[in-house]
């Protein structure tokens, strides 16, 4: 229970204990039972003794039991998990792995009788005290059909199997992970159907980053293939969170070029051909899309219109893209933090500026000390998605200018019949901008947060304004360039 991420179900606990030979030897000291399995009444007694220290909750769509208080968790980990010997750790974690991968489902697991009295009593001399016994563990399919006829995924298996497997020795963990998890079509299709892309990346990293020192050639080759698979997922993994049935198409169209060259990838592609038609009937005969490893690292598939502007925050933790909507993509979690639909126009949007810390009403002290552009220079919590949701976006087309919140609220809007030749933010922190209409000799200076025209420069000249430049040192200094030079 302590070793699991968030607890264990009662059936899982009884199954794991029933697979543990040491547990059964301590329970059945004086006889060999007809059913080699932990008696349910025994766990009921233990649970009654622990009742005030444990609680029941729902995790991964299943009721589980776990420690009631965080302090209990910390003490249990310190007393039991951290003090496990290598042998005990291997036995316990291997039993959990065997449960979820159904190693002994419907099969007899060998059991060694050490007590000479029991060996003589049951006449086990010829087998040296070894017997075969079915432990009657419950089925752990990747998916199943519920009473309403709907497909449900075994989230307990999808989340716990990779975790426990990664704690075993590389020569044991990596080959099993390659066969049962990472290069297994049914497992990965289910994983993309009900887990975030970040969780999948974490599962891959657990096995790819295992030290291959003194490991077998099989382990090293599997890790190299896993690196290829990880790069491929960076290209289409986010798309699969929305359309998991496209898994086989997206994978095969990029990696079929490796068919017959890489053992695990070849096995995965074969499974795609055999099993994917029940999800997507489209079969890919040859490599159609650029394979991983050619310079392309990430691919985002949220826009349905051409992306016209792309920008990063200063710490590179988020990318902001503009088309007919604005999307803020968290580079740390591979999640879409903000997705804003912009007003529909008969023309494309041109530019977007992100104002993460705009002060709507600033004090005189702000005027004195914060005159420079201070957009996103802090080092704290920019990777927090709640931080991204506080951003404000300044966008413009040729005839329209908007200030839009992360919730899609319009805070500022200006329209020009002539169109704008210059639309530019001159101070991000205060939200100050300048607007110049085409063939105009007037510069308007707006406070976006207050929706207020605070300055207007009318040159009263025959020549119109070509462009306006502002000083990076002070937002109060601008240079106006006319068409006549």
Give an overview of the whole structure.
This protein has 15 helices and 20 strands. Helix 1 crosses helix 5 (86-100), helix 11 (217-242) crosses helix 12 (247-255) and helix 12 (247-255) crosses helix 13 (263-275). It starts with 9 loop residues before the first helix and ends with a strand. The longest helix is centred in the middle third of the chain and has 26 residues, at 217-242. Strand 1 (54-59) and strand 2 (62-67) form a beta hairpin. It is elongated. It has helices at residues 10-19, 21-27, 40-49, 70-81, 86-100, 116-121, 155-165, 170-182, 185-194, 197-208, 217-242, 247-255, 263-275, 364-369, 385-388, and strands at residues 54-59, 62-67, 108-112, 130-134, 143-145, 151-153, 309-312, 318-322, 325-330, 335-341, 351-355, 392-396, 400-405, 410-415, 420-427, 432-437, 442-447, 452-458, 465-470, 478-482. The model is unreliable at 359-383 (pLDDT under 50). The chain has 485 residues and is an alpha+beta fold. Among the domains are: 141-301, no CATH class; 309-482, 7 Propeller (Methylamine Dehydrogenase, Chain H). The strands form seven sheets. A four-stranded antiparallel β-sheet has the order 7-8-9-10. Strands 11-12-13-14 form a four-stranded antiparallel β-sheet, with no helix packed on it. A four-stranded antiparallel β-sheet has the order 15-16-17-18, with no helix packed on it.
């Amino acid at each position: 229970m302590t070793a699991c991420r968030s607890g264990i179900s009662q059936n899982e606990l009884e199954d794991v204990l029933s697979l543990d030979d040491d547990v059964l030897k301590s329970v059945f000291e004086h006889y060999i039972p007809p059913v080699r399995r932990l008696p349910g009444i025994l766990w009921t007694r233990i649970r009654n003794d622990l009742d005030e220290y444990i609680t029941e909750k729902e995790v991964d769509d299943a009721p589980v039991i776990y420690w009631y208080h965080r302090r209990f968790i910390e003490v249990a980990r310190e007393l039991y998990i951290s003090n496990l010997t290598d042998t005990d750790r291997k036995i316990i974690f291997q039993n959990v792995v065997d449960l979820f991968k159904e190693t002994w489902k419907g099969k007899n697991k060998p059991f060694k009788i050490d007590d000479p009295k029991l060996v003589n009593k049951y006449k086990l001399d010829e087998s040296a005290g070894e017997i075969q016994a079915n432990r009657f563990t419950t089925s752990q399919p990747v998916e199943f059909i519920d009473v309403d006829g709907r497909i449900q995924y075994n989230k307990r298996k999808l989340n716990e199997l990779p975790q426990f497997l990664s704690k075993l020795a590389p020569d044991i963990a990596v080959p099993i992970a390659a066969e049962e998890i990472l290069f297994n079509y049914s497992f990965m299709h289910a994983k993309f159907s009900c887990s975030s892309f970040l969780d999948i990346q974490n599962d891959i990293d657990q096995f790819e980053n295992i030290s291959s020192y003194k490991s077998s050639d099989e382990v090293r080759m599997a890790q190299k293939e896993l690196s290829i698979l990880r790069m491929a997922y960076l290209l289409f993994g986010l798309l699969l969170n929305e359309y998991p049935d496209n898994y086989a198409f997206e994978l095969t169209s990029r990696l079929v070029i490796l068919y017959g060259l890489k053992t695990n990838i070849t096995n995965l592609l074969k499974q795609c051909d055999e099993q994917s038609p029940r999800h997507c009937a489209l079969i890919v005969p040859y490599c159609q899309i650029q394979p991983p490893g050619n310079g392309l690292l990430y691919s985002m598939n949220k826009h349905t219109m051409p992306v016209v502007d792309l920008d990063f925050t200063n710490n590179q933790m988020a990318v902001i893209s503009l088309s007919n909507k604005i999307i803020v993509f968290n580079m740390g979690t591979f999640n879409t933090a903000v997705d804003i639909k912009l007003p529909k126009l008969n023309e494309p949007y041109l530019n977007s500026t992100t104002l993460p810390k705009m002060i709507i009403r600033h004090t005189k002290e702000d005027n004195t000390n914060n005159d420079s552009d201070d957009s996103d220079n802090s080092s704290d919590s920019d990777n927090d998605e709640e931080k991204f949701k506080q951003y404000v976006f300044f966008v413009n087309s040729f005839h329209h200018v908007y200030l839009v919140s992360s919730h899609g609220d319009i805070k500022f809007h200006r329209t020009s019949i002539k169109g704008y030749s210059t639309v530019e933010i001159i101070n991000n922190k205060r939200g100050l901008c300048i607007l110049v209409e085409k063939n105009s000799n007037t510069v308007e200076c707006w406070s976006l947060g207050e929706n207020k025209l605070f300055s207007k420069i009318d040159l009263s000249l025959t020549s119109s304004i070509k462009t306006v430049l502002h000083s990076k040192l002070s937002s109060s200094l601008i240079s106006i360039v006319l068409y006549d030079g």
